[in-house]
Amino acid sequence: MLSTIVEQSVNGIVTGSVYAIVAVGMTMIFGVLRAINFAHGEYYMLGTFGAWFSIDYLGLSYEASIVVGVLATIAVAYVVGQLVMRRMVGAPAESGVLATLGIALILQNTIILVFGGGYKFFAGGYIEPVSILGFSLAQQRILILVVCLLVFIGLELMVSYTRLGMAMRAVSQNVECCSVVGIDVPQVVLRTFMLGAALAALSGVLTAPVNVSVYGGMGELITFKTLPIIIMGGLGNVRGTFVAAMILGVAESLVATYVGLQFRDTVGFATLILMLMWRPHGLFSTQARF
Amino acid sequence: MSLTETAQQARRRDLRIPLAAVLVVLALAAPFIGSRYITHSLIIALIFMLPAHGLNLLVGYTGLLSLAQAAFFGIGAYTAGLLAVTYGTPFYVNLIAAGAVSGALALPLGIPALRLRSTSFVMCTLGFVIIGQAIAKNWISLTRGDMGLSSIPKPYFELGPLSFTVSGTTNFYYLALIIGTLATFAVWAIVRSPAGRNMVAIRENETLAESLGVPTWHYKLIVFMISAVFAGVGGCLYAYYLTVVSPLTFQMYYSTTMLIIVLGGGAGMISGTVFGSLLFVGLTEALRITPELRMIAYGVCLLVLVFWFKKGCAPLINRFWNAIGGAK
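Predict the joint structure of the above. Result:
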């Protein structure tokens, strides 16, 4: 009984790590752009497809496929960012919703058009189990945990100390003032967007060996998981996102075990609605509500 | 007309009444002019127009961006489908029930959701769709899960000794046309009333509206419920037209389509919603050759809409309407 709870919680933390890496990109994009990116899961999907392609067609190793997947996604994100996201600075909320929905449709269906809509087998990754303190855990899951921690430490440092990080914080506080003091706001938006997409792709490549199957529509589900997380975490809040993702990961894992697998995908929105009734600002937001 | 214009200036002929007459005739004669496929597309457009009208009241007039239309659309479809399959009640009973159940469920959903502002509100309403789909999938004893409800009977009316069954595409087209026209008039009546002006006041500046004595909370809640009633009625028609209801009725795709219809046609304009539903349903039907290319083209259209037609087609419609109106 207890060991099941612990095991499921550990699995939940791993799932939470995956969500956290995806969601932190989305929350940063929200911070600079004030727009929800409905296409965010599509970059997760693109990363996975890039890796699957380089393993299946180019015969690369899993490690190399991570690089290929992430770089391919960054390239796509650069094009999308130049054409669309840059122009969304200061646009009303509706245009953000519509434009990113449009991008999601285009990316998802282009992949289906090129590679077909069926499920594909992802052959790669470290799937041997390791046993720690009597629990067995796949190596890949440990890798995900480690990468997640490194990503968040890296992001904390970047946001606090680098030029881009400071520019991001400035833009998320006041776009007009940034323009006045000479910060190239569209450029900051573009770079943040590319960083967010790269993180989503990284998360996708890391999870692919655990999920095994790869298909064109997989991004949509990830987008829907990410949305409640970034709201719960307080929009634009990096640490809050981390905690919210962990809470959601563990909650999903426990619900799947004790209530039923089919309810797993609703946990996020159900928790979100309950949480919003109690704290409309998000769990960790100190700012005015968005 | 501006004051500086004089009576001598040439006036073009007012073509608005003839045009309206032509449109009415076209709408009435459509099943006999076009092919069966065109009639089918028009029925879909008329059905989608109903939830879009509701969404227009929310987005266009009250300024609340909601993605919950698909949830209420699905609730309406399931209510009508279950009543028709289980109890065999006549069409108009199910239509009213679908609207009433959707509207009633909008109350408990709207109370927490409307406490939120923009982005959080959008997410919360999106959550209703996801949760609705999960309920439809998992409450198997009621909804038959993934199998859905099938063989919903043809709509029939029963008033005393008279009964009438709507069979065939042409008949269904007229049914949808009647309901669509009534709904359009209902929206027109709401918008033209003092309540409509209060809604616009909330959209423009909620704090100011509140300070002027508009009970903004009640207005928002009631508009949310009305929009759900429209969506429920639309869902009922959709269930009857397709004769099946499945959990896929609760799909983000429907919410997106409603939003595209409203914003693409022109938010805050009734003619915009009517035009938008014809345009976008026509567009998706025309692109039906390959499903993937169709969705890609749909995505491109969205981007074009956002960056080049910020206010949808409404300004174009207005300009055209004024141009043929005789005034220079």
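Chain B is about 75% helix and 0% strand.
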